[in-house]
Design goal:
There is one protein chain. This protein has about 240 residues and is mainly α. It has two domains: about 70 residues, no CATH class; about 140 residues, Double Clp-N motif (Orthogonal Bundle). Helix content is about 65%, strand content about 0%. It contains twelve helices and no strands. Helix 3 packs across helix 4, helix 5 packs across helix 6 and helix 6 packs antiparallel against helix 10. The longest helix is centred in the first third of the chain and has 32 residues. It is globular and about 55 Å long. The protein starts with 5 loop residues before the first helix and ends in a 10-residue tail after the last helix. InterPro entries: Clp_N_dom_sf (IPR036628), Clp_R_N (IPR004176), CLPT1/2 (IPR044217). Keywords: Repeat. It comes from Actinosynnema mirum (strain ATCC 29888 / DSM 43827 / JCM 3225 / NBRC 14064 / NCIMB 13271 / NRRL B-12336 / IMRU 3971 / 101). Pfam families: Clp_N.
């Protein structure tokens, strides 16, 4: 297995920056990104182990921590705090999706994946919405199915209003999808892939019912971004 060598990282930083302080700043940034990759690598296989039936006690033993520590690190909990995952890498469109989700959840006890998906569809110029439009069984069926979900809500909005555990997981997976595809940004397309990868929330159920599948969505997203890049250096990729 090919491993990242320290020498390679040093050369990479040194060739891209001239002054020692610029190199130090770049090294700190690179170290942070490597830490993030490591966290998502472990998280991917924790999710895989859970799907295979492994207990939290077994997972904790495998990574050298207690059951409680493993759950605290890897089980999303309802919270209004989005420090993890961070929105720093989100595009403007992706941030608007999160803001729109909060708007759609104004009559709900929490911000769910259904609200994130509705916000994604409202940001219709983004690649996420365009992917849904391309893959859904017929035009508008996803929005209609979401409206049915939203009609079920009658809760009183708390302050602060939490993101549901499913939403927090989907947002975490959006970052992981971007890292997996070697993209330096998190756009609406990654939010869509995160909602599909999460699998258990209302958004995933709605998307499944309207024929939007994860593999097909990823193929379309990758093809669209590749096509935009191939149109030339003057062309701005229509990621979002």
């Amino acid at each position: 297995m090919a491993l990242v060598q320290l020498t390679d990282l040093i050369v990479d930083v040194a060739t891209r920056h001239v002054s020692p302080l610029e190199r130090l700043t770049a090294a700190v940034d690179l170290s942070s990104r490597l830490d993030e990759l490591g966290d998502h690598l472990i998280g991917h296989f924790v999710d895989e182990a859970r799907r295979s039936g492994a207990s939290w006690t077994e997972i904790g033993e495998s990574i050298g921590v207690s059951k409680q520590a493993a759950q605290k690190r890897f089980v999303p909990k309802e919270s209004p705090d989005l420090v993890r995952p961070s929105l720093d890498r989100y595009t403007d469109r992706a941030r608007r999706v999160v803001a729109l989700a909060k708007h759609h959840a104004r009559h709900s006890e929490r911000i769910g994946t259904e609200h994130l998906l509705m916000g994604l569809l409202d940001e219709h110029g983004g690649l996420g919405a365009r992917t849904v439009a391309k893959l859904e069984a017929s035009e508008g069926t996803t929005r209609l199915a979401l409206l049915v979900e939203l009609e079920k809500e009658s809760g009183k909005r708390p302050d602060p209003q939490p993101f549901s555990a499913h939403s927090r997981k989907a947002l975490e997976l959006a970052v992981r999808e971007a890292l997996r595809l070697a993209h330096t940004f998190v756009g609406t397309e990654h939010l869509l892939l995160g909602l599909l990868a999460e699998g258990d929330g209302a958004a995933a159920r709605v998307l499944d019912s309207t024929g939007v599948e994860r593999d097909a969505a990823e193929r379309y997203v990758v093809a669209e971004i590749t096509s935009a890049i191939n149109r030339g250096p003057r062309s701005t990729p229509r990621a979002g």
